[in-house]
Amino acid sequence: VVMTSNIGAHHLLGAKVTEAGIDSATAELVEADMKRYFKPEFLNRLDDVIMFNPLKQDALRRICINMVDQINERLKER
Questions:
Q1: pLDDT in tens, 20-58
Q2: Residues 6+ apart with CB under 8 A from 16
Q3: What predicted TM-score, i.e. pTM, was given to this entire model?
Q4: 3-state DSSP call for residue 25?
Q5: In degrees to the nearest 10, what's the CA dihedral of 58, 62, 67, 72?
Q6: What share of the chain is helix, strand, coil (3-state, %, to 5)?
Q7: Do residues 41 and 77 make contact, with C-beta atoms less than 8 angstroms apart?
Q8: Which of 29, 64, 73, 77 matches a 20 to 30 Å C-alpha distance to 22?
């Protein structure tokens, strides 16, 4: 089972991202937010927590273009 959350996303927006991933200070801030939001009983049931690197501007642009293209295709069908 894969679950996603935006908890701590505000920390990730300004994070220093390298090839190795997100800096440890930012990761600690996100983990602290998770501990404040979720009960320990829930967190202890998780096998792993993965923090994804924020999307770059170019990736966001491509996603938006794809979504607009999909909407245009649906509108053509009407």
A1: 788 888 889 999 999 999 999 999 999 999 888 878 889
A2: 22, 23, 26
A3: 0.67
A4: helix
A5: 130
A6: 55, 5, 40
A7: no
A8: 64
